[in-house]
Amino acid sequence: MGGVRPVKNHTAAVEELLKDPAFDHVYFDIPWDEVAKYLVSSPEATRICADLINRYTDRFRLGTDKVAPTTQEKYLKVFYRYGPLWDLLTKDAVQKVRKGNDERIFDQARLKVRAWEKTHAAEAPGERSKPDLQR
Asked: Which three-class secondary structure string do you get for 3-56?
């Protein structure tokens, strides 16, 4: 069974995407148990990731890959594993990664969907224009 492992210069590759305006709509989710394992594997690894997140606070979010956990403890296991990361992030970054970015992203998405519906709801199903999948 394969796993997720950081590649050589992983952080530099991620930062190249973050700096590129063509990818300003791309966000990074950091919930995986496998990702957490590597991210907090050493103080240096945690510092490198924290520095990246602190530079790009709007582009990271915390999620979960737990499906139907039987207890809250199991659900929060990865959250607590990220403790060393939370300690190195700015207060602004912690707020955005844990909650703020999701609120912003999903609130904006809802508005875009409603605007699309308003524009296209009156069209006959066979006449609908193709959605712009670039954004």
From this structure: CCCCCCCHHHHHHHHHHCHHHCCCCEECCCHHHHHHHCCCHHHHHHHHHHHHHC
What are the φ/ψ torsions at residue 51 (nearest 5 degrees)? -60, -40
31 belongs to a structural domain: yes
- Looking at the DSSP assignment, which residues form a beta bridge with residue 60? 28
Examine residue 112 and state whether it is found in any structural domain, yes or no: yes
The pLDDT tens digits of the residues spanning 82-94 come to 999 999 999 999 9
Q: How many helices (H) and strands (E) does the chain have?
A: 7, 2
User: Does the residue 87 lie in any domain?
Assistant: yes
DSSP state of 129: P
Domain residue limits at 30: 10-121
CA 15 to chain centroid:
14
Round to whole Å and give the CA distance between 100 and 94.
9
pLDDT tens-digit readout, 23-37: 999 999 987 777 888
